[in-house]
Amino acid sequence: MNVGKWRPWVSAILVALMCGLLVACNSGGGDKGLSNKNPGANDLNVVVAFGDSITQGGECSCIPYPARLSGMIGKIVYNTGIGGSEAADSVGRTQSAINKYHPAFMLILYGVNDVIMGHNVNGILGALNEMVLICKQNNVVPVLATYPVPIAGHKLFAYNTIMLNNGIRTLSEANDIRCVDLEKEFGGEKDPANPDWVVPNPLLYEPDGLHPNDTGTQLMALAFADLF
After folding, report:
1. % of the chain with per-residue pLDDT over 90
2. What is the model's pTM?
3. What are the residue boundaries of the structural domains of the chain, listed by start?
4. Among residues 19, 54, 23, which one has the least CA distance to residue 226?
5. For residues 161 and 125, is the Cβ–Cβ distance under 8 A?
6. For labelling, which of 2, 95, 153, 211 has a CA lying 20 to 30 Å from the CA of 203?
7. Average per-residue pLDDT in the chain?
C-alpha cells in the first residue's frame, strides 16, 4: 500500500500499527485497483458500505469508516450499516440497497452478530454468498471483509469469529472477488498457542472489545481505500 498517499489522515501511532499489516485475503486482480468493467446502470462513483454496527459506526464517538473512505477515494460511499443486524436477516436488504443507490461496488462486512447469537458458521457463509450473488446479478462488484477478532468482554466469541473469517477468505477465493482481511489488520504478533492466528491489538478497539475505536476506524478506512 502507498502509505504516504494517506499519511495526512494518519496519526503517528497508526502508522506504526499498520506498517506491514494492510493485507487483502484475496487479490482478485493482484495489485490493480478495484474496477467494474460492466457496471450497467450503476454509477462508477458510488460505493455502498453494507454491514452492522461496525459499519454504521454508532459505538464510537468518531467519524464512521465509510465517510472517511469517501474522502480518501473521491467516491460517494453510502453507509448502510445497521447496528445489531445479522447476515442471515439482511440478504434481502442487499437488493434494496442496490435499487436505491445503484452502486458499482459493495463492501460487505457481515456475520459477527450471527456468531454472537450462536448461529452456525456455514449458515452465515451461505447468507454472505447470497449477497455476493445478488451483487453479481446486478453488475455490482462485491468485496468481502473479515472481522477484527473480538477481545475483552466479547472474547467468548473470538474462536467462532476466526472460523467465520476463515470461511470468508475461502468464499472470496471461490467467487474470485477481493477481500479485506481486517482480522490481520487488527492483529499484532502471532499467537504462541495458535501459530496461524494473530493476537488482536487492544489499542484499536473500544472498551467493549468488539467495535473499533477512532484509530481502528481509521485503519479500516485505509484498508478499504487500498482496494481502489
Report:
1. 79
2. 0.86
3. 38-225
4. 23
5. no
6. 2
7. 88
